[in-house]
Design a protein that fits this description.
Layout: E1 2-4, E2 7-9, H1 11-21, H2 30-39, E3 45-46, H3 49-85, H4 91-102
Helix pairs in contact: 3-4
Amino acid sequence: MIAFGAYKMSKRNADPIEEHTGNSADELSVQELEQAMADLNIEKQPLVDSDNEYIDHVKSKEDEAESSSGASYLDELERLSQLHDEGVISEYEFRAKKKQLLGI
């Protein structure tokens, strides 16, 4: 099952949508997705409570992963700063790695 907005569909239905639109179903707006589904005669399958519970579970796991990666990101910056202060890495190395971590 794949959930998109307020609908779910099987991978079997998502593949033809991608072929039809040139984009994966999750990249489409709700209007574009509904149009593609209509063009391909794919029935809308509304989400039920168990689907919503599963989605909430997955989102909470993603949030946990983001929280832990955010902490490790800050830990890494702190570690780099300490290495720089101790003279283990140069100013250039420190700035380069800092930019990499910040995505600049």
